[in-house]
Amino acid sequence: MPDPSRPLDTTVQPEPWTIEPLALDHKPVFDRALAAAGVSLSDYSFANNMCWQLSQRLFIASLAGSLGLFAERDGVLSMPLPPLGPPWQQAAALEACVALLERANDGALVGELRFVSPEFVARLREHGDGWLRGHALEVLPESPDFFYRRSEMVELRGARYKSKRNDINQLLRTYPSARVEPLRQGDAEAVRLLGHLWLSQRGDHERDHARDEEAFALAAAMQHFDALGLFGVRLVIGDTLAGITLGERLPTGVVNVLFEKTDLDVPGASQFIFREFCRGLDDDALINTGDGAGSPSLVRAKESYRPVQLGDKYLVRIWRTSP
């Protein structure tokens, strides 16, 4: 597996823009752009993008008063997010991004924008179909994020959360030594081993590349835990790490859960550590646990916590309509 801290390079340098490989020292400017965009989706996170770089390389550029995030995979340039910045500048920024994508990519498909918010789509539609000259936009729904209220996740009141309470009580009866402690960067090796255990227990042997990406991203998050401003809790049974929940505070104030990994042979570990992670927050924040990642079982698990809202997002494809 590549080193999560490896330097990135690029041959994509179309003038007049300067594209830089995404690096840790870009966090302040990235966070300012995220705050200006005002979107609370899990993908609008510096840490999330910084860590998931096993099969693609990420670059940033300042374009028309906004920040553009670009990904290069197999020689094709795309955008993991739409232009980040003040909403009133996004249309102009998108035009600049499309010009850059056109110079980098061949074929009828100019490029793709992932994880586009409904507000951004609405602003594009306000401009009408012809405003982006020589191009057409195709908008497709993606799997939504799940949002919860912190107080509800701590209290777990009522019949709808009875099974969650039962799972937690069973864990505490079975493992009276179970305790929750703050997660630290120094736990990186124990977390790596837990992550590999979790992946092996899932048995997704046909998804080797996805397993590698997951392990790489978790290792990168722990390696840069402090620099990324992450926080979390760990579940310890005796002297053994049995689970972690790892998150961050987005610029919008929403708490974003990046990873949750538990020993699947410990029933109730996931329910217990998520509740304790929420308990440790110092306000009644909204908590975003991300989307279903293409897994029906994960979607069912997230739905069982009765989200207070869903965060819709879209894939936007940009097509050439004129030579």
SSE blueprint:
Blueprint: E1 20-21, H1 27-37, H2 46-51, E2 57-63, E3 66-73, E4 76-78, H3 90-104, E5 109-116, H4 118-126, E6 135-149, H5 150-155, H6 162-174, E7 179-182, H7 188-202, H8 208-223, E8 231-237, E9 240-249, E10 255-262, H9 269-279, E11 286-288, H10 296-303, E12 309-320
Parallel strand pairs: 10-11
Antiparallel strand pairs: 1-2, 2-3, 3-4, 5-12, 6-11, 6-12, 7-8, 8-9, 9-10
Helix pairs in contact: 7-8
Domain Phosphatidylglycerol lysyltransferase C-terminal: 42-316
Pfam family, one: LPG_synthase_C
Organism: Nannocystis pusilla
Overall helicity: 25-40%
**CATH architecture label name of the largest domain:** 3-Layer(aba) Sandwich
Order of helices and strands: EHHEEEHEHEHHEHHEEEHEHE
Question: How would you characterize the largest beta sheet?
Answer: 8 strands, mixed
CATH superfamily of the largest domain: Gcn5-related N-acetyltransferase (GNAT)
Which class of secondary structure composition applies to the elements? Answer: alpha+beta
Instruction: Return Rg in Å.
Output: 21 Å
CATH topology of the largest domain: Aminopeptidase
* Percentage of β-strand residues: 25-35%
Rounded to the nearest angstrom, the distance between the terminal CA atoms is: 42 Å
SS element count, helices: 10
Question: Mean pLDDT, nearest integer?
Answer: 90
Please provide the count of β strands. Answer: 12
InterPro entries: Acyl_CoA_acyltransferase, LPG_synthase_C, UCP018688
Pfam family, one: LPG_synthase_C
Protein name: Phosphatidylglycerol lysyltransferase domain-containing protein
Domain Phosphatidylglycerol lysyltransferase C-terminal: 42-316
